Amino acid sequence: MNRKSELEGSIDPEAKVRPIRTITDLARVAGVSPGTVSRALAGKSLVNTKTRERIQALAREHGFQPNQMASKLRRQKTGVIGVVIPLGHDREQQVSDSFFMTLLGHLADELTEKGYDIMLRRVIPDRDEDWLDRFIGSGMIDGVIVIGQSNQFARIEEVADGYLPMVVWGNHQEGQRHCVVGADNRLGGRLAAERLIAAGATRLAFFGDTAPFEFAARYAGACDIANSMGATITAVSTHLSPAQTAQELSRFLAEHHGEIDGVFAASDTIAFTCLQELRKLGIAVPDQIKIVGFDDLPIAEQTLPALTTIRQDIQAGAHGLVDLLLRRLQGEETESLVLPPKLVVRGTA
């Protein structure tokens, strides 16, 4: 069999009609993982010689030249850091969300101190599956900070295999390849449930979408404590839209009247809405229902009553994101940074 026949026999039969634009596309054609493609194209010895040569030949055959702009950026700096917010799980969420604005403010302070400008993008991944590849390959940024893993964990992992100057705000999992900064979300969930139970609540509800990794870890932590302390906990899926949160809370209370006495909100934003809606419904907080949020945004101490919440140090997180990214721009392989959460007791629980 000649070389061309050997290559053709190993590729996806639909490859000829689908363009090869990303490492993921080439991996599909080659029948290997994106990480293997990335390492093969980089000439790394971790990939055996036969596989490496086959992948490189496929890349030449399809005219695929990976990281052209990334290579350019290594030679010619732009002085701009990209900040991207992927909204794969909740396309209605806005950049004006209090958490985003707080984190972005601290990031801007940190980056401008280091002499960098910011390019901000909000993306809906299901409209553009190559959202991250396009951004880092645009030639307009030196590196990228991704705020939130959303439902894009696999996409971020693939890019991390071939692109070093990227740091992500999110939840750390053992064995992941991308560098992340964020709170110990599972521990935060435990602290929240412990506080609710200590305040007298035994029938808990978790308000938030459990699909995103951060929220899922917070819910898992709360379940750990509820299960060990004889309390019950129910997940009520809601996005971050105040209108939807209020609607789901009203619906849940109508269907489960008197069945909950404690709410763990996946974020302070959700907690604020719950607090307002309970006031409208004439339900006293914390006498009838206790609430614990997560984030400790500046407004948390200004609500009535002031919000009991789990504090993740957003300012320290922004500092960590920038520090790790700048080290990666120098070629350093950095570890993830997991921040300890802290219970802040105020008036809602």
From TrEMBL:
It comes from the Bacteria. Pfam families: LacI, Peripla_BP_3. PROSITE patterns: HTH_LACI_1 (PS00356), HTH_LACI_2 (PS50932). Keywords: DNA-binding, Transcription, Transcription regulation. GO terms for molecular function: DNA-binding transcription factor activity; transcription cis-regulatory region binding. The keyword Transcription regulation applies. Residues 21-75 form the HTH lacI-type domain. InterPro entries: HTH_LacI, LacI/GalR-like_sensor, Lambda_DNA-bd_dom_sf, Peripla_BP_I. This is LacI family transcriptional regulator.
